[in-house]
Amino acid sequence: MFSLDEDDEGEISVGESSDAEREMTPDIPKAPSVKTFDDDGDFEGASDVDSGTLRAFVVAVVYANAAVLLVALGPMVWFFEGWSRIGPVLFVAGLLAGVRTYQTYRSWKRSKDAAESDPGGDADSGDESGSDYPADPDGSSPPEA
Asked: What is the value of pTM for the model shown?
């Protein structure tokens, strides 16, 4: 009775692209391969990184994570639990961890700049006082933590 009742007429193919669409579609580009750490977790690939840079990165990540946690947790504990002594202490500890993150970065940056300006010097030497901060170029003492 209806002309659309036949098997193939009037059907729309959903999800299938036509020949014209396949010709016009660009090829999907391949992602470049990147060097990654080994899957066994021994971090052999990290040996390519300077030890001072790796140490500064790990320390900065730990400080930054502590800063984010404590700055967020302090006000929540203070407001929701009513711990008016512990909440501000956690918040201030988070701020101090954020400051230490910045100090760690600045220390690494100064040692890197010093190593670039003095190609014969050792980038990991710093000062002999055992401080995390290298000596300033103007001869002043490093900041106290």
From this structure: 0.52
Q: How far is CA 57 from CA 37, 97, 115, in A?
A: 16, 14, 17
For residue 125, which amino acid is it? S
Question: Considering the chain, what percentage of its residues have pLDDT values greater than 90?
Answer: 35
How far apart are alpha carbons 115 and 16 in whole angstroms? 60
